[in-house]
């Protein structure tokens, strides 16, 4: 291995087995072909390796390479490194993601105003519709237990909607709403059945 002392680039020559021994040769043309025209001092190292044994590297010395002025090979860029230096010098730059700037939003007061407008229909239903339709609460005394269960179930359902809006997601809310809806439907059926029986008794 011939490693440049200026840039750390290295050129290699592989020994070949001939007549019972290994032989290798390398010249300036071979170095130029591998790393380009890079004159200067090179450190010469003998690398010996085998799959069954630990590799050995032995520094033989330093040589100076001079290239012909007629050579058309390009000089290597300073950022180029061999595989030996890649873990340190060829680390890829960190990728910085550029996110789109958040869109401008209206003030919080606007959001609160629209939230209040969204609740206006519910307030109208709870306050004005019962009086217009002639709804009264006399039936609560006729079947107090079923009335308490039914109206308590309705209030709990409304509370579940509020919790869904503040904390839960749709997958968590649907099972609870389904189970609680069955309870509300059952208690409402019992309440209506009790009121119907009492009306039949009065008619008789």
From TrEMBL:
Domain Ribophorin II C-terminal: 99-199
Top-level taxonomic group: Eukaryota
GO biological process, one term: protein N-linked glycosylation
Record-linked InterPro entries: Ribophorin_II_C, Swp1
The keyword Membrane appears for this protein: yes
GO CC list: oligosaccharyltransferase complex
A UniProt-annotated Pfam family: Ribophorin_II_C
Keywords recorded for this protein, A-Z: Endoplasmic reticulum, Membrane, Signal, Transmembrane, Transmembrane helix
Bilayer topology annotation: Multi-pass membrane protein
Subcellular localization: Endoplasmic reticulum membrane
Transmembrane segments: 109-133, 145-168, 174-192
UniProt keyword Metal-binding present: no
Main location: endoplasmic reticulum
Name by which UniProt lists this protein: Ribophorin II C-terminal domain-containing protein
Species, as recorded: Volvox reticuliferus
